[in-house]
Amino acid sequence: MKVAVLMGGWSAERDVSLTSGRGIAQACRTLGHETIEIDMGRNVAQQLAAAAPDVVFNALHGTPGEDGTVQGLMDLLGLAYTHSGLTTSAIAIDKELTKKVLVPAGVPMPQGRLVVSDSLFEADPLPRPYVLKPVNEGSSVGVAIVTDESNYGHPIRRDVPGPWMEFETLLAEPFIAGKELTVAVLGDEALAVTELKPAQGFYDYDAKYTDGLTVHECPASLPPEIEAACLAHALTAHRVLGCRGTSRSDFRWDPAQGLAGLFLLEVNTQPGMTPLSLVPEQAKHRGISYEQLVQRLIDMALEQRRGGRE
Question: pTM here?
């Protein structure tokens, strides 16, 4: 069939998207599909119409490819596409909206609050240590951990680099000590739990996408009840949000608190497909090759198209 791989764009995650897209395109060619690589421009509607694909493999990360904008465009064009649709994408990209949907469904998430960045220069919004993050960015873009030992000052200084320089509003959450965990869901099955062990600092953008900066332990060595809870919460999040194809849920777990110390941080509806990405790694652990993973996502997109989109 003819597959258009949509990648690139202009978000902060452009380079990662291009890496994901090129790997997907190579897999599609290996599978025998006619494959068109599209680096998304502002004329994306014309680009897609000219390609006239049977299915679009959405390899975009960040806005506007992950927030429902491109999904709505493809719905209007009548195209089959991989991953989640408009409504799910719009909710999941917004961390505050995600909490409002998932916490009532029994998924534990950190309590936090939205803060105007300028207010940080007057006083801390929460007791230190706490985390500041953009409301609608992925891949740990713009995340800052504010501690008593950090060089941000008391309060944070205007002249110190941080997300307060880029975003008018930020989400402040308590810092959860302990382990960084993640779970991929494929179709309607949670695949595995991976522990992410950065060489230093936390699992930020560089640690995610620079070879050698993070060790992936897959499957993670966890108490059975913690592993089971991670898998169950990730699957619940996938279902309640209405995710399609694949998603990845990120967790923090404080072993000192047992099950009460497990919190879901966010749900990624467009997980990376790079050589360092976690969904392909967990799929491989379950005996699914990269090419088989790509084909499954294509098949699910076509099945959803036949059944009618949201």
Answer: 0.91
